[in-house]
Amino acid sequence: MTPILYKADETEFTNNGLGKITGIIQKSAIVQNTLNGAYTFDFELAKSSRFYNVVKEEMIVKVKPDSVRDYDLFMITDIDKDSTSGYVKVSCSHISVILNNYMAQSQIPIDGFTASYILDYIKNATNTPGQFSLTTDIDEQFAGTNVIFEPNTNINEMVLGSTNSIAKVTGTYVLKDKFNMNLTKADDFKTIVLRKGKNISNISVKRSLNGLVTAIIPYYKPKEGENKEPIYGSKIKSPLYSKYQHEYLKAVDFSSAVKGGKDFSAEANNYFNDNPGIDKPAYDVEINTFEYRSLRKQKFELADFAKIYDPDFDINVQLRIYEMQFDPINESATVIKAGTQATSVFHNLEKKIDNVSGDVSDVKDDVNETNKDVSDLKASDKDKQQLMDELKKNVNDTRDDMLSYINGSGRDVIRFLPDRENPTDIVASESGGNYGMRWNSKGIYYDGKGTVAIDNRGNVYADKFVGQSITGVQIRGGEISGVTIYGDTDISLGSGSTRTSVTSYGISTPNMTVYQIDGVKAMNIESGYLMINGAKITGDSSGRLYMGGLRILNESDLK
């Protein structure tokens, strides 16, 4: 699906708005969707695109986000024009980014209420625009969360922010679709099968300590009127604290629990029970896909489950898809991430969002093994970076050699327009000037002093023709001057009874208008007459002349 552009105030998306966006650089259009995290669409435009100077911040783009849904809506947030490449990079965030501007006017507690009630309350309390909706399939009532949303907290922070959001405290997922945000457990989502060699081109397994917590320092802020310095409790270690060589410490604020009447020490001691898996490494599987037709048969979207088979790594697991990259133009998923990755970055709120999805693998490795994995990863990254630097240098050297070769013969410069990767025109001009010989699918032409063109229909135009001979040419609608015509040539003008023919043996024409005839030796008129100012002159076989039917007397008649 080609993305479609709409004005910032558009509310109806069944039409084509400002038009389908043409001139998108190949493979630059990517929708990236992360579970409880960033949901973005980025693309690059060539300078030749008619949308190059049309796209503006706050405009809306309609695009296909995955293989299941027809379309979703994104708002343009950043436009970056690169004068070197001539491209413009357009960055978009999901339309729900608008909800960052709508905030609570007073405190909103959630304990004692159902999810649907709280979502409705949040919408009403923030004056959320009518086209947006907050829905859920969760029936349980919140209890024991001690969460109270403070004034000036925006909707996105309350629903899926990193600290005490609804998604965080319930371990649920927020799925965005157009103007809807749906809170769900996603327990009944479907499962797809990915196999190495069938629809997986590459698979990588990563064990990460990102987000790992093995000990906490609990604290709370006293009520108003009391000492305003935070009150800290004793350090609390996780059951797996001794498994690691280093301590992964985090300060945790229990002010909400204390305000709600909870016991500070009891809540702090239950931290690791309330956050299972936070003291374990996260396992992450990244899959590069190919053979889109294979994937097309099993359509999938974010939060679905993936059964992953790879005999090379002895992998046979089922994990939830927590991130995917989708090419909306070719309608294919290019990267899928599934696993227990603990954290990701929410681009629009500029803060980390905890991703609590998936099962956490048992920790059986000791400290030395963990350190070895980290060291191996760093060494591997260093080797890859070195190879990448060498590759870049080779590419740059090759590019310089090619340009040097092209520019080495004379002063002409060959340019590929609008860009070298996807050229539609090739232009050769002197020193890169504005005039030169241009070639494209419509033909070849030179635009400068003396224009010449050959189009794809067989037509040729030139200011001048210079050559020894032209054979089999029909000249129409032109002017011929200063020309000498040699040989047995027949020049015909007109057709039928009005045709005039000029040949080597005479001129044949039904009518001739002559201003002056000099040096005429003989004129033979057969079966015809002369008209001189209305006087008709004819003759007969005996040599007599007649004017207007009356015989003209000659000298012999008077003798």
What does it look like?
The protein is an alpha+beta fold. Among the domains are: 4-96, Elongation Factor Tu (Ef-tu), domain 3; 215-274, no CATH class; 412-462; 524-559, no CATH class. Helix content is 15%, strand content 32%. It is built from eight helices and 37 strands. Strands 1, 2, 3, 4, 5, 6, 7, 13, 14, 19, 20, 21 and 22 form a 13-stranded mixed beta sheet that branches. A six-stranded antiparallel beta sheet has the order 25-26-27-28-29-30, with no helix packed on it. It is elongated. Residues 291-297 and 341-370 have low confidence and may be disordered.
Task: Describe the secondary-structure layout.
Blueprint: E1 4-6, E2 19-20, E3 30-34, E4 39-45, E5 60-63, E6 72-81, E7 88-94, E8 108-109, H1 115-125, E9 133-136, E10 148-149, H2 155-160, H3 166-170, E11 173-177, E12 180-184, E13 191-195, E14 200-208, E15 215-220, E16 231-232, E17 236-237, E18 249-253, H4 255-259, H5 264-269, H6 271-274, E19 282-289, H7 292-296, E20 305-310, E21 315-327, E22 332-339, E23 343-346, E24 351-354, H8 367-408, E25 412-417, E26 425-430, E27 436-440, E28 443-447, E29 452-455, E30 460-462, E31 491-493, E32 500-503, E33 506-508, E34 530-532, E35 535-539, E36 545-547, E37 550-552
Parallel strand pairs: 9-12, 13-20, 15-18
Antiparallel strand pairs: 1-2, 1-5, 3-4, 3-21, 4-7, 5-6, 6-7, 8-10, 11-12, 14-19, 15-16, 15-17, 19-22, 20-21, 21-22, 23-24, 25-26, 26-27, 27-28, 28-29, 29-30, 31-32, 32-33, 34-35, 35-36, 36-37
Q: Tally of extended strands?
A: 37
> How many individual helices?
8
What does the average pLDDT come to?
76
**CATH class label of the domain at 4-96:** Mainly Beta
Estimate the global geometry from the Cα principal axes: elongated
- The percentage helix is 10-25%
Structural class: alpha+beta
CATH topology of the domain at 4-96: Elongation Factor Tu (Ef-tu), domain 3
Label the CATH architecture of the domain at 4-96. Beta Barrel
Measured between the Cα atoms of the first and last residue, the distance is 107 Å
Radius of gyration: 42 Å
Beta-sheet strand percentage? Answer: 25-35%
Q: Which stretches of 5+ consecutive residues score pLDDT under 50?
A: 291-297, 341-370
Major sheet details? 13 strands, mixed
